[in-house]
Amino acid sequence: MQIFSPIHQVHFTPLNEVFVKRDDLIDPYISGNKWRKLKYILADVKAKGKTHLVTFGGAYSNHLVATAAAAARNNLTATAFVRGENVTNEMLLICRLFGMNLIFTDREQYKNKQALFDTHFGSAQEAYFIDEGGASAAAVLGCAEVIEELPTHFDHIFCAAGTGTTAAGLLKGINAQSLATQLHVVPVLKGGSFIKDEILTYENNTTKLTLHTDYHFGGYAKTTPELLQFIKKFTAETGMLIDPVYTAKMFYALTDLTQKGHFKKDVKILAIHTGGLLGILGMQDQLNAVLR
User: Fold this and answer.
1) The domain containing residue 145 runs over which residues?
2) Which residues pair with 55 in a beta bridge?
3) Strand ranges (DSSP E) for the chain?
4) Its pTM surpasses 0.85
5) pLDDT tens per residue across span 219-237
C-alpha cells in the first residue's frame, strides 16, 4: 500500500529550518504511527489465519480507533478492553461505528492484560492479542521504515513518546543505516526516563538517543494553559494541527530547546508528526477556553 507522508518545512519562529514528516496525513483514523505499528501486526494476523483483534486502551485512545478502523477495512472483528468506568465519548463512538466491541475494565484488572485476554478469549482460536498502543516487535519494524523513507540526511530527529515503540523503531532505523543522526525523544508522561528501558527492549544501541523528560506538562494527557496557548499559536501560524497529548509537547520542546541555543546553526532538524489528532476531542473544554 502506498502511503502519503510528505515532508513539509515549518515556518514558526524560531523553527524556520525545521522540517516535519507528516505521518498525520497517512489516514484520518489509522493515523500516523498507529498505521505503522499495525502494518506488520495485520500481516501476522493474516499469516496466522486470525480473524478477531483484541486490544487495550483508555477511553480517548487513538490506538483503539485505529484498530477498530483497521479491523473493519480488513473484514475482521475487534474487541477492546477499555481502562476505567463505562463512559461515552466521541472516540468510543467512532470505535463502535467501526463495529468494535468495548469491555470496560476497572484499573486494577486492566494492569494484567494477558490475564484479561486469557479469561475472555483464551480458548478462542481466532483471537489475536494486540498490546496497548500496539507495542510489539512488529510495530517497531513498521516505525523503523520512517527512516528508510527520508530523501535526505537530517542531523536531528524529534518524536514524542508514550510507550517508546515509535522511538525504538526510529532508533533501529538510524542504527541500521549507520547514520550520524541524533534521535531526540520527548516522553509525554511524568518520570519519562523509563522510556529508555522500553527502547532497550527492541534496540540495544542507544548512543544516538537523547531523552528530554521535562516537557510532560504534568503527565500523560495532562496539560497547562501555557501548552494550550502554544497549540493555538503554532496551529494558527503553520496551518498544521497538533494534539495536546503528544505532538504539542514535542513541538514545544523543540521550540524551547532551539530558543535556548541547544543546536548549532545550519543543522537540519526533522520532527515526526505521529498523528493522533483525534486526541484534541478529549480536551475540547480546555481548548475552547483558550480560544474564546
Assistant:
1) 7-29+140-291
2) 80
3) 7-10, 18-22, 52-57, 77-83, 101-105, 127-129, 156-161, 182-187, 209-211, 269-273
4) yes
5) 988 999 999 999 999 999 9
